[in-house]
Amino acid sequence: MRNDCSYHYTPALSIPISLENLHCCENWLPRKVMSAWRIAGIVHALEGWNVHECGSTMFDIEKVWQATLKHGFQPLINNDSQIMEYRA
Q1: Which of 3, 13, 52 is nearest to 34 (CA)?
Q2: What is the pLDDT of residue 23?
Q3: HSE (CB half, 13 Å, CA atoms) of 27?
Q4: d(Cα 20, Cα 32) in Å, to the nearest integer?
Q5: Model confidence pLDDT, tens digit, residues 24-46
Q6: C-alpha span between 80 and 50 (Å, rounded)
Q7: How many domains is the chain built from?
Q8: Own/partner pairs for 58-67, CB < 8 Å, 24+ apart?
Q9: What is the separation of C-alpha 32 from the centre of its chain, rounded to a whole number of angstroms?
Q10: Cβ–Cβ under 8 Å, residues 16 and 73
Q11: Residue 61 domain-assigned (yes or no)
Q12: Is residue 12 part of a domain?
């Protein structure tokens, strides 16, 4: 790791166990984990929402969070040793 850089984790969630035939992955995340922005799009579609967060427009974050959990997405707990194993 470089000392002149800042490193951050990608906001991500684990996908529901019921989600099958997912034929894609993000190469910087472990299997069965997706970026939060992708999951936001999926949840918006599942809920039938027609609003989009752009600029200063913000949807009710608590409503979005509850819908995300309702559909089985779970917060990803960052475990450095687990992430390091994945990169190896």
Answers
A1: 13
A2: 67
A3: 0
A4: 10
A5: 667 778 888 889 988 988 999 99
A6: 37
A7: 1
A8: 64/40, 67/43
A9: 10
A10: yes
A11: yes
A12: no
